[in-house]
Every structure is written in C-alpha cells, then in structure tokens.
C-alpha cells in the first residue's frame, strides 16, 4: 500500500451549514470545536466519516459536522452504528451520545457494543442531567439530586460510566473534559487509533440545568489539585507542583492518593493503559471522590482484542474465498441443493 | 404372500411420537420419497410447546403430517387417513383428529402400564373397544427393530433409536415409495459412523419386509404422480423459502444482505439458515435484543446493504419505534414477522394471523409502511423477493407477514430460473442533484416512485445528515414548518399508497359466483380447497387472495363490488375484514377462528355452503 | 388624561419574545388576573423546539396566547387581536397569524441592526410601511424599565429582566385587569430576595402608569365577566389536571398510585407534578427507559397499586410489548399518551392526534385495551379518573390519549366537590373462589364485568402464578388447547367491548341538522366554536364528540345513521374516520390537517359551510 | 417487635401443583429443589414471597413455586419486580432469569436494578446458551462458539456476569452451581439476608444444547482443583488438599494462583466480602481461565448501601407524616391550591 495522500483538510471543512443551536455557554460548543479541529488529523476523506447519535442536546452533534450523519432515536445509536460499521468496515464511525441516551435508555446497546468490541468511537457527553427534556436527573447524577422529577432528591446511586464500561469488557476507556481542548483532542487521537470500541466520557457543562457540575475540575483554584492527568508510561502525579501522587497500597486493591514528597518514587504507580487485566483501570475508575477530587482524565485502558467487525468480515471473506462461480450460478446451485426431482 | 394393490388419489399420514422419537425426520424422509415419486405434497409439523417435556407425556408429543396426491393439493389435509403412534401419548394426543375408519399403526412395545398411566389411560386402549371403528395395526416396533439389529455392532440405545426407520420402512412399503433417497440420506447423515448407517438401513429394510410378509397389512397402496409443470422441484418449508428469497434478493440487487435478528420462535430458523450463506456476502448478526436487531439492520441499510430483520409478534412490537424512524429516514428495510398466537407470549409454537393490525397501524404518528404476506410455503420465496423489491425501489420499510403455518409447512417448489427472477438493481446517488449543480438534496424525490436518493456514506460530495425529526421537503433540514409537516406526512402516505402492485386475481371458474371469499396469507390453501370442494358439488364461489395488504391492489374495490357477499376467513378476530369495510364500505363478513391452528378445508366448506344458501 | 373605555366581548392576546424574556410567566400572570375578573379563558403556550436557540433568533421565540371573553369560549382563539413582540424575532415569527388591524406592541429597544439582521430583516419593519394595516405601538420597553428601576438596588441585568413585568403592567392597564394576584405572586416568587420583589412591582406599576399617561394608548378596554356556573375556579393546564386526576383516583380508590415514567416531551410535566404528591402515597419512579417504566407500573399493579405510566408516542411504541402482557395478565394499568407530532421524533413540541391507530391496534396478537381521550385541559382531570375507573373495574390496560394542545393549554376549571367524584374502591380477592371452597381460580370471572379477581401478593391462601402464555379459562394454568385459546381471545375482546360507557351526546340545538361533525380528543374546542359560528349565521349543524374510543358508545351507530353526512375533523390522516367507516359502514368524510397545530375555528367553519352547501 | 413465629414450612410447601417440564437431566431441576429446600429457612409466609421471571427455560421457575409468581416477558423481570418491590416493601421478591434473559435483552434493566440497589434477589441461571429457543449462543457463550446461529463460530467476547454486575455498582454479588445444593443454599441464605439487590449467578447445565459446560467444576477429577470456595474471613485456598492459594502480587491489581506450599501464609489473600471498594471483588471476578480453572464460587461482595425501595418509601413516609387531614380533605386542598376565584 502506498502512503496515504495528505488531504489537507481544515476544521472549517468539518463545519456543516446548519446553525448551531445549543444554549449559549453550553459545553457542547467547545466539544464541537475540538472535534472539528481534530478531524483533519485523521486524514480520512469526509465522506468516509459518519457520526451517529441518539436523542438529547448532545445528540444534535451530527447536524453540525460536515460528514455523513444520522440523528437517530433515543438510546439506539450504538445499535444502528453497529450495523453500519459491521457492514461497512471502510468507514470511520463515531457515536455521539449523552448520559441519558447512553446509560439510561441505551444502556444495553452500549454494553453490548463494548463487549463485542465493535469498531466505534463512542463519545459520551456527560453533563449528569437530562438537558433536552429540561432538567431531570440522569443515571450519572449524584445521589440526592434535586430535579424536576426528584423534588426531594434522587434515591438511586449513579453509574460510574468508566466502571460500567470496564465491567462490560471495554477495550478502550478514556475520560476528558469539554474545557480542555488539547486534552480532549489527545484523547480523540488515541480513540481514533484504537481498533475496536473506544469509549470516551467527556465531562460537559450544561449551564442551564446543571451549571458548574465540573467546576472543581475547571476552576484555577482547584483544578490542578483535583485533576489527575494520566500519561502512559509516566508515574501518576498531580497537583500544581506534582505534590500528589497515586499509590497502590500493598494488600489493597484500590488506589490511594499520597503526598509525593513523602512517598518513595518506586511506590508511585506508573500508568500503563495496556495492562491486560481490567482490574487496574477499574481501580483507577474508582479513585474520584464525590466532590470530584482525584479525578483521572486521559486513557485508562487501551488493549487489543479483535473487533467484532473484523471477525465477521473475515468469516464472510473466508466463505467468499471458496466461491468460483458467479453469484447467479451460486444462487442456482443453492436453490437446487438438497433432494430435488425433475418432471419432464 | 402377494398383496393386493389399491389405487388412491390422495392420502394423509401423520407420524406421531415422543419428542425423542425422531418423528420430524421420519416425516421429512417420507415426504422426500414421496416427492421423488412425483406426487403433489403438503406437509405440516407440529412441535411440542417450547420445553422438552418428560418422555412419554402429552406435552412431549411431536408429530408430522404429510398429504400427498395425484393432483395438485392445497393443504396438509384436514384429517389423517393413517396415524403412526409411537407411544400412548401420541395416540391420545392425536386420536380426536382421526376420522372413523382411519388406519392406526401403534408401537405396542410402548404401551406399558407406566406409559399408559403417564397420559391417564387406566387400561390400554388396545385392549378395550375404545378403538373400535378404526383399523388398528399393533406392531411391536421397538422390539422388532432391536431384533433386526441383533447382529449389528451398535448399542441397545442406538438400536432402539432406529425404530423410526423401521416405521418409515413399513410405511414406505405400504405406499410403494421409492426409497433410494432415504438410503442416500442415511449414508450422509451417519457418514462418520458407518455402523449406524448399516443399522438404520437394516431397520428400514426390516420395516419394509415386515409389511411385505405380515398378514395384518393385506393391502398396499399406490398414489400415482401428479400432473405438475415440468421442471426441477424440491420440497421446501416457508422459512427455508423465505431465507432463500432473501439470498436471491441480495444476488439480484447486487447488494450485501445484512440480517439483524434476535432469536424467537417461529422465526429463528431464518437466522439459522441465513447465517449459513456467508459466501453470498450475507452478514448475520444475532443482536442483544429486537430493538438492536432492527437498529443494526437500519444502520446497514443506511450504509448500502439490504437491511433485514426477522422476528415474531413480540419482536415487532419492540421494533415499532425504530420502524417509525425508518419511515422518517426513508431507507429500505425488510421486517419479517413470522406470526404466532398472541397476545403477549401466547402460544409460541402455534399459528395466527393477528399481527395484521400491528403491521398496518402499530406505530406512533402517521407512519405508513408496505405490508405483504406469502400464501404458501414456496410462495415465501417470491414474497421475500417482492418485499425486497418494494423496500429497495421505494426506500421504505416493508413488513412481510408470514406465520407459523407457512413457515413450518412444506410443499414442492418448482425451482425458478435465476435469470427470470426480478432485477432488483438500484442506483445509489453519486452526484449532486440540486439545481445549482453542487448541492445535494437528500429529500428530493423521484417523481415516479416518490423515493428519495440513496446516498451512501463513502460518496464524496454528498455528505448529508438525516434524522427522526421532521425534515424540510427536498433539503431534509430539520423543519417545524406546519405546511411542510402536512406535506411530508401526506407525501409519505402517498409514497406507499401509489406503489404499483398487481391487480388481485379472482378465481371464479363458473363465472356466476355471487359470493366472494377473500383471504390473505396462509389461509390460501384451506380456502382454495374449500372452494374446490364446493365447486365439485356444483356450487359457484369466487376466491380472491391478497398478497399486498398495503397498498391494496387498485382493482380491489371494483372486484368487491361485483359480489353480493364478501366473506373473509381469518385466523384473528376480523382484522382484514375491518380494513375492507373501512376502505370500501363493503359489508365484509368475517369468519374467524383463533385456535392456534390453520383452518380445515372442511369447516370452511361447511361455513361457505351456509353462506351460499343465504344469498 | 382621561381615556376612553371601550367594551369588548372577547380579546385574544399573544405575548411573544425570546425564550429568555419570560413570556410564559407573563402570559400566566395575565391569565390569572383575567381569571380573577371572571372572564372565561382559554390559553395556549408555544414553546420553542427542544433546544434553547441563541437569543434573538426565530427558533428561540416563545409565545403565550390568551383568549378571554364575557361568554364561554372554546379555544385559545384563531388570531390574536394584540401581539406583544419583545424583539424582531417575535414580530417576524408571529406576524403571519395577525389579522389586519390588530394591535402590535413592540419593544423598540430590541430593534437593533444586529437583532434585525439575525432574523433576516434588512431594514426595520418599524421604519418602512410593512406594518401598515396594523396598529403598531412602539414602546421602549427595556429602557423604560431600566429607567424606572434606576433607584432600585438591583443589577442592570435584573432590571432589564423585569421588562416583562412592565409589559404586563401595560397590558393589565389596557384591559383593566385586577392586579392584586400578580403583586402577591411576585412576593411569593422572590420571597428570598426582597429587592427583586420591589423591582418587579415597580416595573409593573411603571408599565401600568405608562398606559395611563402615554397618548399612544388612547383607548382602554373592558371585557365583562362571563356568566359561569357558581363555584370556585382555578385556571389549569391539561397536564396539571391530568396529574390531579390521578391523585384523585388514588384517593377515591384508596390505592397507592405508582407512576413509572421516563421523561419525554410533552408528558414530562405529569411526572414532575406527581412526584410532588408523595403525601398522598403517590410513588413516582423515573425509570431507565419506557419499557422499564411500564414494567414497573405493571409490577406495582400486580402488588395492588394503581399502576400508571405516562409518555408520548415513541414511548407508547416501546411499551407495546408490555401492554400486551398486561392484556394477558388482566391487571389494571393506565397508559397516558400525550401525543405529539410524529412519525419518529417528528416535532416533539407540536400537537397531533396520530396515535389513535397505535392505541387501538398497535400490539401483536388480539390485544384489545380501552381507549379514552380528554376534550379540553380541565377535562383531563375527569378523563384521568375515568381511565382509572375502567382500569380498576375491568382489570385492563387503558390508554388515555391526551395531546400537546390540551396538555399545555389552559382553561378555568370549576373545582369539583371531592365527595362527588366517582367512588373507585375495588375489592381485592381475599379467599378461595373455587367450587370446592379451597381452590383459588385466578381467571374465574365476575359474570357482570368479566373481570378476574385481583389477588395481591400477601393474601394467604391465594398463592398463584400468572404469565404471558395463554391461560386456561378459570385456572389460569398454561394452556395450548385450541378451543380455550379461541375462547380466551374472544373473552378478552368482549371484556373491552362490553364495558358500559355513556352514550354519546349530540349537540344540535336547531334539531334539524343534516350534517354531523364527529370529533374526539382535543378538537372539541375548535369544532364547537366552528359549529357555534355556523349556527349564529343560521346554519344547522350537529356536533358529537367521542371520549370513549374503545369501546365506543352503544348509541353511536344509531346517532350516525340519523345524518346525511358525517364529517370527522382530525389532526391526522383520518384514523377515527377509518374506524367509524369500518364499524358502522358509514361514509364518514375526514377533514384532516397534520400541521402540528390545532385547527382554527375559522377554517373548520369554512370547511363545514362547504359541506352544508352540498347536502 | 416480638420474635417471629416459626412457620414450620417444609420444602413440600413450596412445590406447586404444576408438572415440572424441563428436559430430563436439566440443571434447573437441581436448582428448583435447592430453592424449595431453602425457602422454609426464610420463615416468611408463602404469600409474602413472589417469584418474577422473564422468558426462557429457567424462567418457567415461578410456575413450580407455591408462592405468588409472575412469568413475565423476555428480559423485563427486573423492571417489573422493581415496581412490585418498591410499592410493596413487605414482600420478599425474587427474580429468576437466564443468561439471555438477563444479559441479552434484559441487560439494561439488570444493571439499573443493581445500580439502584432495589431489594431484589436475582438468580441468574447461566447455562451459556439459549435453551428455550433451541440452542443459539448467548452473551455468556465462549468466543468462537458454534451454534445454530453461528455455524462458523461466534465473533463476540462474552460478558463476565460478575464483572458486569460489579461495574454496575452491585452491592451483593455471588456465584454458585446447580450441582452443589449445599453451596447453592448457603449463597441463597446470604442473598436473602442482604438488604438491596443480591445478584447470584448460578452455573446451570443445559444437557440438551450445551451439555457439560461446567463439567470441569463438577467432575471428581477436576473439580477440587478448579473450584475456589470463597469463605468470608478465610484465606483463599483450594485444591483437594488446599494445595493452591490465591495471592495478590504486589504492584499488580489482579489476583494469581500459587502453590500453597511455596507461599508464605501472610501472602494468601483473606477473603473479605465486605470491602467497600469493588476493585477487590472485580479482581476476583477476573480470576477464572477460559477452561474454568480457578473459578471462585461463593459471595464475592456484600456491602451495605440503602436500598432504592427504602429511600423511596422513606420519602413517602416523611411526606405522609406531615399530613393531619383525611385524604379527601387533603385532596380538596390540593385541587383548590394556587390562584382560585369564586363565582357566586
Ligand atoms: C423513546 C424516547 N424517550 C424519551 C425521549 C425524550 N428524551 C429526549 S433526550 C432525553 C434525555 C436527554 O439526556 P441526555 O442523553 O443526557 O442528553 P443531553 O440532553 O443531556 O445532552 C429524553 C429523555 C425521546 N426522545 N425518545
Ligand atoms: C421479545 C422476545 N424476544 C425473543 C423471545 C424468544 N426467546 C425466548 S427465551 C429466549 C432466550 C432464552 O435464553 P436464556 O435467557 O439463556 O434462558 P434459558 O432458556 O437458557 O434458560 C428467547 C430468545 C421472546 N420470548 N420474546
Ligand atoms: S440544556 Fe444544557 S446541555 Fe442542552 S444545550 Fe442547553 S446548556 Fe447545553
Ligand atoms: S433446553 Fe436445556 S435449559 Fe432448557 S430445559 Fe432443556 S436442558 Fe434445561
Ligand atoms: Mg445529559
Ligand atoms: Mg440460557
């Protein structure tokens, strides 16, 4: 195969002619800009890229991308995208979904897409609220959340989307945040390179119904101390001056935060997204506190497993390889297989 | 001993036994032999309800009925002339269906006290006079089989298992069937274990010879070949024919077939069959549920495949929301509903036609789709092609309403010439269609078909977005404009209403019928047989059968208007009759049975005779 | 300056502005003042489509229409006499609906070049003659409000925000509304921030005074109180009334209400409202999806609650399979479908009546349910009670077909006396009902209602199992018996068909009408207004309105037979007309619009006049 | 509250009059017998016990229990049972489901029930196949499984039901096996005592379509070396003579098997089902090999978290506590709330 030709696309090439209609200040704008800015890097012709979404504010996304796109129905994007991806391995298929779309009504399709390792890049815009239906709690809202549908507080514990994905055998799991374009793009890059399902949770601010949900991760006063930036192969330290670090106390299964100054270097966990056992990434996913302290962002896990698409296509290819007739001849043979008899 | 040979024009045999007795296979083989001989055939299996019941119980009975004749027949037969009962349960479960005088061949070895008790026989019906009026042939099938295999190197269990071949041998002798195909079949089936080939062949021959020698079977029958169109035939079930039709649709359209399916009785076999045809480029995906199955099929259609999903009623209910999306997206999609008895889980192994309403009306909003139904097992092949043709040409979901009766029944199928099958090639959009020569309008319609362009991802310059929100005419942009919505709703309706479908044909050989019997789907056989019966008795009756339920044939109104009375037999509470009444204001009378069973020709004949009397 | 006072019998005002301008609140307050005065009222909000569009754009326009009169009115009015336009977008979006001569009050402060450009105005329509023919009142609403609040201790943003109160003050002055309730309301609303109370009250007064003093408003209007039945009233939306109806059903049945719901426009408000009534023992659960929502409701019904699920079309589609289970289980279940424009996602904030087919027919198998529809916002209360009554008495799912128009519209509601509400108490089974005195037969029916006993877990001695497989009559055991299935299918159908529902009433004051207008659901208002209009012009027309769609009133056939023509206006493509034609073989003519908007009385009047001419 | 009266029920009291109709030899028989044998221990009147199932061979279960029962529709049992349990906290609600019913079509309801911690005892009969529909592969079937629907082998990786449950925030997770009645009953006992969702995977042999799937855990030759019996508070050792043990290698996140003889006692992991961090139970769930070696059975995790039911009922109770009028008076007040006016 020859080197791919550089297509020289720009972010502008990925802007559709549709007026963007999120509330002013919505985190979705930043994500859109980041995605549009990242797309040229892929060096994939626009026509070979498809965005499939469900329903929700976030799910309006495909309309704004000048690629192929489908704004489908609530929760079903992973299923629809699976059919597309499996039947068209030549395409780059992206799913855009919300915390309600992906984890509430669409939970089953999501976990099955991950288990199958369908070649989808799944971007979950997590604003911990239902935006489009005007502010009910979502499966990622904190316990006791007061919303229109829970006037005295929600009664149920939220999902941790990354834990759920890992429990569902995901091969690529990452988290990023709307406000940090560079980081967001670095995660998109890793996701795009992954063969199989790449699950990316993006913390997104809904300034109308759940404003400030991720402020501790954004405000100058707290963000450095709260955010843990995972870098493959690097010891996990954080804080403005790297004063905190993550250790794996012997005997325990989880991770803990320590002061770097008082911790022997060799005790600091060195991040390795490629560990085969998901237990490590799972432990990472449990690190954040309710106040969002110790929130890792970056690629938690990225391991190889054949994608569903590739296995299915190989099976078809293998069967086709045995064929030495025209489809019509083959069909005639198939129709006439089994016990036949002839009347003259 | 030379036996008398008697000619018959038709025979109905039912093989019945325990689930483990291999009755389906026995029936299949007998059918195949019969096909080789050139009789017309119609068969119907009857599986036990979903769970394998303990051996010897009533719920565990499995049966297979085959009707064969020297003329063309339409149904598997109302009542068996011969019952093969492998155990007391099989006898008890089937006796009520037998007309007096029928032959009953029983495996006496299984009429033990324990087995009798299992099904509530206080005494053996073979010993009292409860079977007087039938021609009972007690045969020690099991022990004779074991005896015949004494010298064979097989376990006792394997020997005992071969008793169905003994029964098949006996029946094959009785009806003078050519058995070469069965011998070949046994060789194939047990290729890996030659000792089993030998044992089963020996059991078969023992059965044959038993017929030849025993005095109990004094007469041997012959049913001459039927006059059938020249050509090559095979015997085929509806599910198999439907599967092949979908494969053929792939070949004739040049598109890969993508099946998204979730297993459900009685549709699962289509998934099984299609998953064996990867070399045609058919991709099958067993999805996590019915919603994912139809979603994946729709996604594949969006990508340029022929998206298909197969299911039964409960699955269609779950798919409704996605079918509604497909209506909005205007993409091809074939939804196969192999109907079973409802509501809810109902009786999953029984037949019914009660999903017509759901197919026509079961979606939110104005969401019209095309609906068609096959009339017989072999017709499933052509119906599948027709469904694909409509879906591809008009970019619309099409619901194909099969049912358990056609799906599992079988009949001889005249193999079509592949080149004569409809040409289903479609053209994908390849370039801008806007007046300016650069814009692409995904909802600019073909003036003829009202279909929108099918621009598949990967086509440079046609990047566009579609979705479930209302779309502006032509551009497909999101639109809340009231007039546009009204226009789009009416256009989607017109797109279905104006699909040209063949006129309905009326069979009225006498030309003076005043009563029309109108049916759809799998009732074709029994209705046809009933009409024949009436005509043979000098009564005039007209028959018309709908393949297209939406849209309906253009001439239907005129046809209905010609008759004094229109009778609509259905295995539901009158769903087609309702539509006919609404559309044509014709006082269609429903004749309805919702028993999980096909109509018998006899009951329809009786009912129609009553109707004829009163016009 | 003393102003002229002019008497009017009715006025339609539309408040329109950007989503952020508080138009819904302004309209609500004006409505409340008007209610206090004793006018009859009907209101209709119009929200922007689901996403908050950038300020000042057309998709961001939000409006609220209120119609009030000195007689009883039926609709929110076809065309506004007065438009309050807070910005250019609001003007542009609403202008087409105004009749010539209408008053337009515009907030000139917002007519900046930038804002004009946003909606495609090249020049300000205030400056050219494009508004000739209207009575335009340019008012610098924003700056005057800010000016009026100069001395107040509020931010500029808060001051600016109070401009809707200025507008309200002005309109209240113009139509001589009593404003005490608004002052009280502001005190409640801003209780935590007294400075805002003061500011908003000041803005209101400034608006009032502006009317009083400016020359532009020379006339002040009065609309006398309407003659209404004595009693206490409140203004209520359909969704609120429906919610209260469900709470009332809980109280009157003595059962806990369990709501399983998944948010969806325009039904979510019912979930919100019911979740505030825990002290009535109402349990609300926001489920993971619609299937879980109806499943949980059914589970709660099984346990002895009144199980309810609320949704819109796409949700009902998803619930179909579970509703079919509820049909088989024969348990009470209320399914509320607040219809919106489809198919698929359609236009979620717009109204439509296109889910009738799905309600009647959208399930696999023969799965009949009761279907009813409210005719106006306040009627939603009684419809909810009626749905609960049928569900509880007949142990059946009931689909309640509301729609966006009644759900969000409002009207005065004469508060019922609680004791006069229907008594919905039911008796749970408490002891064996078998002939032997010890057996419990879960499918032994009440001969009157055909309802089966409701034996809730916790009742000793009545342990039993139910499920979706076909059940034997009486025992409820799994049954594949053909005759039993036919019997059960027919019995379930009869259980619905024989529910006694009130006769349909015909309004034909002249007594000699030859044309009947038949409607259902939310078209009641416009149809009624149109008929009135015709009668006022000396034409005779009869009106009948169906609350019960399944079963239909027993006298309907007879009623239909009395008229030469039956016209059925529907916001769909003719779904009720179809049923009427099928059931009664009456050539019902559909008048259909599928625009996402209610009919206007005027267009119906024109259409009906045409029909009357041709009988 | 006074001591509960001993009801003196027996297994026989829990047998319904319905003929049991599984295939002869099906593992479901053993589970049924074990459950019927265990029920009397609960000392709950039969009428306060409800079994809710979906569809599948396993889901026929309620018909055979002489309690209240509902054989619902495919995959929906957790949702239906949730409505029942939340509205009737006085009942003991059990869900019986299969690997297809719970993890394929019903996956979403399952994970949400677990996240909510609804007070349900969920018994998942895992035979790694679709029994009722006659032998298609299921979401727990091994990769490459040849079945009617996958004639050249399945393309997708299975779920690990316990990992999935843990990723979904389950508070109680256990595994047991049809053939070991004593163990099965011990797990039922623990599940019954748990307040909230108790998720129990039961390995069940389908002798018709997937015979022998769990034979390594049953056959005398292998079972002792393959099965790890978890006992709370005990070091995890297994093998006929306890010759194997489970350790948590320092630095790693997963668990490994060692020979006991060569392992210092203090390195052997002591099982603690009560660890708050699910990372431990997750690590345990990853232990088994594809050949079923190192398969832990017993209670993996059992931690306290308020059940959804209890929070909902408390909210209702709190609201009701404020009421001092009859329901009718309250209703009259509610109807008349807001702005009203009176016409005389
Ligand atoms: C079948 C169905 N159910 C419900 C809805 C209503 N609905 C639309 S979006 C949504 C949730 C949106 O939340 P989320 O996925 O978090 O997206 P966000 O708006 O927050 O980006 C709901 C409940 C729908 N459109 N379809
Ligand atoms: C909506 C719906 N889809 C599909 C089916 C068919 N169906 C019944 S049981 C079953 C799967 C059974 O597998 P599992 O849950 O593992 O139970 P098992 O029979 O193995 O105990 C399927 C696909 C159905 N009854 N309803
Ligand atoms: S409601 Fe929230 S998520 Fe939706 S567009 Fe507005 S700010 Fe964004
Ligand atoms: S098919 Fe399998 S799971 Fe079902 S009853 Fe038979 S052995 Fe048991
Ligand atoms: Mg959200
Ligand atoms: Mg299973």
UniProtKB/TrEMBL annotation, chains A, D:
Which InterPro entries does the record associate with it?
2-oxoacid:Fd_oxidoreductase (IPR051457), THDP-binding (IPR029061), TPP_enzyme_TPP-bd (IPR011766)
Which BP terms does GO give this entry? cellular respiration
An example of a GO molecular function for this protein is: thiamine pyrophosphate binding
**For the Thiamine pyrophosphate enzyme TPP-binding domain, which residue ranges apply?**
55-202
Q: Name any one Pfam family assigned in the record.
A: TPP_enzyme_C
User: Taxonomically, which superkingdom?
Assistant: Bacteria
Keyword annotations for this protein, in alphabetical order, are: Oxidoreductase
This protein's name: 2-oxoglutarate ferredoxin oxidoreductase subunit beta
The record lists the organism as: Micromonospora marina
Automatic annotation (TrEMBL), chains B, C:
Q: CDD domains given for it?
A: TPP_PYR_PFOR_IOR-alpha_like
Tell me where on the tree of life, at the top rank, the source sits: Bacteria
Q: Which residues form the Pyruvate/ketoisovalerate oxidoreductase catalytic domain?
A: 20-207
State whether keyword Glycoprotein applies: no
The terms under GO molecular function for this entry are: magnesium ion binding; oxidoreductase activity, acting on the aldehyde or oxo group of donors
> Which residue numbers delimit the Pyruvate flavodoxin/ferredoxin oxidoreductase pyrimidine binding domain?
255-474
What keywords sit in the KW lines? Oxidoreductase
Record GO biological process: response to oxidative stress
Q: What is this protein called?
A: 2-oxoglutarate ferredoxin oxidoreductase subunit alpha
Q: Native species of this protein?
A: Micromonospora marina
Lineage from the top down? Bacteria, Bacillati, Actinomycetota, Actinomycetes, Micromonosporales
């Amino acid at each position: 195969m020859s080197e791919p030709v550089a297509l020289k696309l720009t972010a502008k090439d990925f802007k559709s002619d549709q007026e963007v209609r999120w509330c002013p200040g919505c985190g979705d704008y930043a994500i859109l800009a980041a995605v549009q800015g990242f797309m040229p890097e892929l060096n994939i012709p626009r026509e070979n890229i498809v965005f499939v979404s469900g329903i929700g504010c976030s799910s309006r996304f495909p309309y704004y991308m000048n690629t192929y796109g489908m704004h489908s129905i609530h929760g079903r994007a992973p299923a629809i995208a699976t059919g597309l991806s499996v039947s068209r391995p030549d395409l780059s298929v992206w799913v855009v979904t919300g915390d309600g779309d992906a984890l509430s009504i669409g939970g089953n399709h999501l976990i099955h897409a991950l288990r199958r390792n369908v070649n989808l890049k799944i971007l979950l815009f997590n604003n911990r609220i239902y935006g489009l239906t005007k502010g009910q709690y979502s499966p990622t809202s904190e316990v006791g959340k007061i919303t229109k549908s829970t006037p005295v507080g929600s009664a149920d514990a939220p999902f941790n989307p990354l834990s759920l994905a890992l429990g569902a055998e995901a091969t690529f799991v990452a988290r990023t945040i709307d406000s940090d374009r560079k980081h967001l793009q670095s995660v998109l890059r890793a996701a795009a390179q992954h063969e199989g399902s790449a699950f990316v949770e993006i913390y997104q601010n809904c300034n109308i119904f759940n404003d400030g949900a991720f402020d501790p991760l954004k405000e100058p006063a707290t963000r450095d101390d709260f955010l843990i930036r995972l870098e493959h192969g690097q010891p996990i330290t954080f804080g403005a001056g790297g004063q905190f670090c993550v250790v794996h106390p012997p005997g325990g299964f989880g991770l803990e935060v320590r002061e770097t100054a008082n911790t022997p270097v060799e005790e600091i966990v060195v991040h390795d997204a490629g560990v085969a056992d998901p237990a490590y990434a799972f432990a990472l996913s449990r690190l954040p506190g309710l106040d969002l302290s110790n929130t890792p962002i970056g690629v938690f896990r990225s391991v190889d497993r054949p994608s569903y698409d590739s296995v299915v296509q190989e099976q078809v290819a293998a069967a086709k390889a045995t064929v030495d007739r025209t489809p019509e001849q083959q069909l005639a043979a198939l129709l006439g297989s089994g016990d036949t008899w002839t009347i003259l | 001993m030379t036996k008398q040979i008697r000619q018959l024009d038709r025979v109905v045999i039912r093989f019945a036994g325990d689930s483990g007795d291999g009755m389906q296979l026995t029936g299949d083989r007998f059918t195949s032999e019969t096909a080789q001989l050139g009789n017309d055939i119609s068969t119907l299996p009857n599986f036990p309800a979903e769970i394998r019941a303990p051996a010897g119980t009533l719920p565990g009975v499995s049966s297979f009925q085959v009707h064969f004749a020297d003329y063309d027949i339409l149904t598997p037969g109302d009542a068996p002339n011969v019952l093969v009962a492998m155990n007391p349960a099989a006898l008890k479960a089937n006796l009520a269906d037998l007309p007096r005088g029928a032959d009953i061949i029983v495996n006496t070895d299984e009429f033990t006290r324990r087995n009798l008790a299992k099904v509530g026989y206080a005494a053996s019906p073979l010993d009292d006079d409860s079977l007087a009026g039938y021609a009972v042939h007690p045969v020690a099938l099991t022990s004779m089989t074991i005896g015949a295999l004494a010298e064979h190197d097989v376990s006792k269990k394997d020997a005992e298992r071969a008793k169905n071949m003994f029964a098949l041998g006996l029946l094959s002798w009785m009806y003078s069937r050519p058995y070469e195909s069965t011998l070949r079949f046994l060789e194939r089936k047990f290729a890996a274990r030659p000792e089993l080939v030998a044992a089963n062949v020996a059991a078969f021959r023992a059965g044959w010879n038993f017929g030849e020698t025993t005095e109990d079977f004094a007469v041997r029958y012959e049913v001459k070949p039927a006059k059938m169109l020249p050509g090559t035939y095979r015997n085929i079930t509806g599910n198999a024919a439907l599967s092949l039709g979908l494969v053929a649709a792939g070949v004739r359209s040049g598109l890969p077939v993508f099946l998204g399916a979730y297993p459900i009785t009685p549709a699962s076999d289509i998934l099984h069959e299609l998953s064996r045809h990867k070399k045609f480029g058919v991709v099958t995906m067993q999805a996590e549920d019915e919603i994912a199955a139809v979603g994946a099929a729709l996604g594949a259609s969006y990508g340029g495949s022929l998206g298909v999903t197969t299911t039964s009623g409960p699955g269609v209910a779950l798919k409704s929301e996605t079918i509604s999306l497909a209506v909005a997206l205007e993409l091809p999609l074939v939804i196969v509903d192999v109907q079973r008895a409802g509501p809810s889980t109902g009786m999953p192994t029984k037949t019914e036609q009660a999903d017509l309403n759901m197919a026509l009306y079961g979606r939110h909003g104005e969401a019209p789709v095309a609906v068609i139904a096959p009339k017989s097992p072999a017709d499933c092949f052509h119906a599948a092609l027709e469904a694909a043709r409509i879906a591809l040409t008009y970019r619309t979901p099409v619901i194909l309403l099969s049912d358990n009766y056609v799906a599992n029944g079988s009949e001889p199928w005249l193999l079509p010439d592949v080149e004569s099958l409809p040409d289903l090639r479609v053209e994908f959009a390849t370039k801008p269609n806007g007046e300016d020569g650069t814009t692409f309008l995904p909802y600019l319609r073909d003036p003829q078909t009202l279909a929108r362009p099918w621009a598949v991802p990967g086509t440079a310059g046609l990047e566009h977005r579609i979705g479930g929100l209302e779309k502006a005419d032509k551009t497909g942009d999101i639109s809340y404009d009231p007039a546009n919505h009204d226009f789009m709703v009416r256009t989607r309706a017109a797109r279905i209403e104006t699909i040209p479908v063949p006129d309905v044909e009326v069979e009225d050989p006498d030309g003076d019928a005043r009563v029309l019997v109108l049916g759809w789907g799998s009732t074709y056989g029994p209705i046809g047989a009933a009409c024949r019966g009436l005509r043979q008795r000098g009564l005039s009756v007209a028959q018309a059968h709908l393949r297209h339920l939406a849209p309906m044939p253009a001439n239907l109104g005129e046809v209905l208007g010609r008759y004094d009375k229109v009778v609509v037999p259905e295995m539901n509470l009158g769903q087609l009759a309702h539509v006919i009444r609404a559309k044509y204001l014709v006082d269609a009378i429903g004749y309805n049975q919702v028993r999980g069973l096909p109509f018998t020709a006899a009951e329809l004949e009786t009912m129609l005779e009553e109707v004829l009397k009163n016009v």
